[in-house]
Amino acid sequence: MPRRIIKRYLPDPQKIRDHKCLRCLGPLRHDPNILHLNRHSVSGAFAVGLFFAFWPVPLQMLLAAIGAILVRVNLPISVTLVWITNPITIPPIFYFSYLVGTWVLGTPALGVEFEFTAEWIAQELSLIWKPLFLGSLICGTVSAATGYITIQIVWRRLVQRSWDRRCRRRRAARRKDAADAFQAEVEKD
After folding, report:
1. How far apart are CA 102 and CA 89, in angstroms?
2. How is residue 85 annotated by DSSP?
3. Is the dihedral of CA 40, 62, 28, 9 positive or negative?
4. 32 burial level (CB within 10 Å; 0-12, 13-18, 19+)
5. Letter string b/e over residues 34-49, b meaning 16 or more CB atoms within 10 A of that residue's CB
6. What is the distance between the alpha carbons of residues 57 and 153, in angstroms, rounded to a whole number?
7. Distance CA 189, CA 86 (A)
8. Would you state the pLDDT for residue 26?
9. Looking at residue 57, what DSSP letter applies?
10. Residue 33's closest CA among 68, 58, 6?
11. How far apart, in whole angstroms, are the C-alpha atoms of residue 137 and residue 126?
């Protein structure tokens, strides 16, 4: 089942609850639902994590943790999924989000050369923030919905396959038992 696969890679629940960044959430972090592994909590965690991964703001992990706790979905998965946007993937993802925003707003995309300085960020962000945030919101929402639906389908199929295997094994065992009983009757006569 998917639960066993996921559980193998997750950290200890007590370590998660005691993490220093989550202390500000107080008793909310002790809700057992934020550590459950079932189809709904995992698919919801994918939605929360993917949604916040597209936000061009600092502290995405904290936002994903708060979102997971408020929606009551799996906390470790939602926080981990935020790392889809990492230092390597941030430029293409945010550029794509910016292009989506310009397309929706009907404005031309600006040819911007990237410099990692405070002045450049302040100057350019004032020009591109509307399409960037709109595009990030759209991309985050679409990826969250896609992730949620995909996990629901995959989880359901894996459980169905497991059920089918179990039923086949039981039928085969019953047939074997019936054949053994028949063989014993034949040998007895």
Report:
1. 20
2. S
3. positive
4. exposed
5. bbbbebbbbbbbbbbb
6. 31
7. 75
8. 66
9. S
10. 68
11. 18
Residues 148, 78, 50, 120, Cα dihedral to 10°: 170
Extract the tokens encoding 60: 């995405």
Give 10-residue mean pLDDT values along the chain (189 residues).
Answer: 63 64 65 78 93 90 88 88 88 88 86 67 77 93 95 91 87 79 73
- Predicted local distance difference test score (pLDDT) of residue 178: 76
Nearest to 94 by CA among 55, 61, 120, 59: 55
The structure tokens listed for 106 are 């009907």
Q: 157 burial class (0-12, 13-18, 19+ CB within 10 angstroms)? A: exposed
Are the CB atoms for 64 and 81 separated by under 8 Å? yes
Between the alpha carbon of residue 163 and those of residues 8, 38, 45, 156, 183, the distances in Å are 22, 16, 25, 10, 30
DSSP state of 88: T
Structure tokens at 133: 């945030």
User: Tokens representing 42?
Assistant: 């995992």
What is residue 123's predicted lDDT score, i.e. its pLDDT?
Answer: 76
pLDDT, position 43: 93
* Single-letter amino acid, residue 110: L
The 3-state DSSP class for residue 175 equals: helix
DSSP state of 61: H
